[in-house]
Amino acid sequence: MTTLVFVHGWSVTHTSTYGALPQRLQQQAAAHGIALDIADIWLSEYVSFDDAVTMPDLVRAFDHALRDLHLVSASFACITHSAGGPVVREWLRAQRERPGVHSTIRLTHLMMLAPANFGSALAQLGKGVLGRLKAWWDGIEPGQRVLDWLELGSAESWSLNLDHIHGEDPAGYEQFLFVLTGDRPDRGLYDHANSYTGEDGSDGVVRIAAANLNAHHAVLARGTSAAYDTLSLHLTKAPRTAFKLIAGASHSGTAQGIMAAAPHVTVDTLLRCLRVTDAGRYAQLCDAFEQENAERDADKIEREKVGPFPARVHIHDPRSLLIVRLTDESGEALIGSRFLLTAGAPANPDWMPQGFMLDRQANRRSANVISLFLNHTLLAGDQRVADPASSRRTLRPATDAHRPYGAMLQPADLSELVHHALARSAASQDLFDAIGPHQTTLLDVVLPRLVHEGVFRLTQKRAPEDFSNPVIGAVIP
């Protein structure tokens, strides 16, 4: 008998958000050999719309609520939507790091629908004037502290995702994580005041790459050489996570929402996940999802009806999310620095492929963290894209890769007693190796902190001496 807990996302105030999904799962479970009774399904009701509530508060309350279930097997499976994914992942980390404080209830399957694992570009809108006005109209608060977590590049999400990337593979101890996300927005829900709601490469709220846990942590830092201006690339890849694109599904809405509308493919995929019982079957499902995603990516032309006018054409290329954090060797944030991507040899920022940069957004609380939304296909190079309705018509000509790709950092302080120097990635390395399709890369760019001898000197002169304008001197090794 499987106990199944549903966890909703940010700003939800009614359990109708789960739609028909719990009922359909229960009805079809038996056909898949899964014992699931309606009494074993629990729907979460948690408060994210109170400005005082933080992510640790939700973790603490979630842990308390689980204790009240009095589970016979002391284990459960969980289906989350949107911000619910990070909530449960934070609970898993807290449970692992503080076993004496949190319950020992074991989560076997975490199935995340459209999770904002790396945040959402919409979080800034939720914190802005429009979000506050909507919250006031609905009689609730916007949930400021949870939105802080959900903002792209937040320190909290960065910490959780670094922990995942550098951590053990959960499948090794039979805890199975799954990410299912829609592959396009619901055009009928487009908000003309906010273009993110119609952004290709997203489900209208969460970017595909920001949902996927198959991520990288890349570090550009000074290597073993003494050169201050050359940064070497160090790369860590996250444990493999089952990732599935639900074709035609969006984040929410009754027409094509991944959860509320409960399309048959969502139910079938969730049941496929629940049937996984060991690491071998998990690896097989990962392989199957990869093949199905490749088939979806091959069919990437969407025609959007525009009344009596010619249809809009959308080319659904895989996108990548590059979240860059600029610091120096002491951990100090580099504010006001310019980060540039470069292409070719010699490296030149003017040689980047046309149209590769789709969006950039700085984190409001950490100005040294910038999120870049990139077209992975244009970076990789692509064949001519023909119109499926007429193969002679070209929707996009063939594009060439401009590799190797690199990075250049121009700090705001280039002189004085303590400063930073211009630096770039090593010419022998290609930053493209750190960027995956439908994936996020956390990139730490770490500049050497140059301290000169003039900061501290010793003297034996007995005569009074003014050192208010010190001689800078050489850089301390």
How does this structure look, described?
The protein is of the alpha/beta class. It has two domains: 4-215 and 239-309, Rossmann fold (3-Layer(aba) Sandwich), CATH 3.40.50.1820; 318-453, Sandwich (Immunoglobulin-like), CATH 2.60.40. The protein has helices at 21-29, 55-67, 84-97, 123-127, 129-138, 144-150, 155-165, 208-211, 264-274, 279-298, 376-380; strands spanning 4-7, 41-43, 75-81, 106-113, 176-182, 216-222, 230-237, 242-246, 301-306, 309-315, 319-328, 338-343, 357-362, 369-375, 385-387, 390-396, 405-410, 418-419, 423-425, 439-447, 450-451. The strands form five sheets. Strands 12-17-19-7-6-20-11-14-13 form a nine-stranded mixed beta sheet. Strands 2-1-3-4-5-8 form a six-stranded parallel beta sheet, with helices on both faces. The protein has a two-stranded antiparallel ribbon with strand order 9-10. Helix 1 (21-29) crosses helix 9 and helix 2 crosses helix 3 (84-97). The protein is globular and about 90 Å long. The model has no long low-confidence stretch (mean pLDDT 91).
The CATH class of the largest domain: Alpha Beta
Let me know the number of strands.
Answer: 21
- Taken together, the total number of domains comes to 2
Supply the number of helical segments.
11
Descriptive keywords:
single chain, 477 residues, alpha/beta, Rossmann fold, Immunoglobulin-like, nine-stranded mixed sheet, six-stranded parallel sheet, 11 helices, 26% strand
